[in-house]
Amino acid sequence: MIRLVQISNGASRRVALVEEPNLRCLTDVESVYSLVQQCLRSGEKLSAQVLDLARGEVLPYDAVYAGESEWHLLSPIDVPGQPSRVMIAGTGLTHLGSAKDRQAMHVADAAKTAEAMTDSMRMFQWGVEGGHPAHGEVGIAPEWFYKGNASILKAPFEPLTIPAYAEDGGEEAEVAGVYIVGEDGTPYRIGFAAGNEFSDHRFEKRNYLNLAGSKLRNCSLGPELVIGGDFQSIAGEVRIERGGKTLWSKKINTGEENMCHSLANLEHHHFKFEGHRQPGDVQVHFFGAHSLSFGEGVVLEDGDWMEVHYEGFGRALRNPVHVEKADAKSPVTVRPLD
Questions:
Q1: Is 338 inside any structural domain?
Q2: Separation CA 1–CA 18 (nearest Å)
Q3: pTM for this prediction
Q4: Is residue 314 included in any domain, yes or no?
Q5: Which of 20, 208, 209, 328 has the most CB atoms less than 10 A away?
């Protein structure tokens, strides 16, 4: 297993191999996207290509991570200059913890939770019963949602914004799969990254049909892209900080052993659509959250920090919360072109 970061000094970019406590830059590579394209053309394994090119400048990772270097962290995946070539989507109701949160969110009387079964719990139960099909078979389809393109993808340490039109904003600590589509339409998994999927849970709670709209918010990945990692069982922790102190934290677990859908089943149901297999496109797919601070009554405020950390995924993903001022709320006017 190897881990990569993308960094920039404002004038140029680098891809670097994580060799704690340092970063070793790859020679003649400015983006993970171009590196992966080289591998697709040559047929060489990505990990082998990385190790072959890891002969460049060595940088102290601590300084880059702390913002004390001329180099700063970028998102671990992008298509430089073409954010529309990256599609960000995800699957919900894949973890027992999140299913319980969603059930409580959509049952009006919490005392009836044991008797009532919402559509959310039905979807989860279908996953339990049919989300791990035998090899070569197709399992039940999961809940699926669209988030946006790379214009909403924020780098580590960049703020995640609760826009003026939103009702709320809350972290969703997840692992995301990162993919590229080959020239023949074949999807290739590049690797995995820690992610904060960030959604408007209060808007969703109003009516579960608001789920689609609640997901149309910015998000973050990284800082590291894990290549060749295991997705069986991954332990982690999610934390909310306010005023320099921990406001809320939770131990979390993800990976196939903790999910009601297998990785292969989630990937099949995302890539079965021809529109998701366009040559040269990058796909980022969030695999669902284990626990949410919103489910325990936490309301994020401007200046709070969200931290997501998974064992084996390198350094923690940290992003501050920015709440857009209410006076910024105004209608978008469409101009006729006739």
A1: no
A2: 11
A3: 0.93
A4: yes
A5: 208
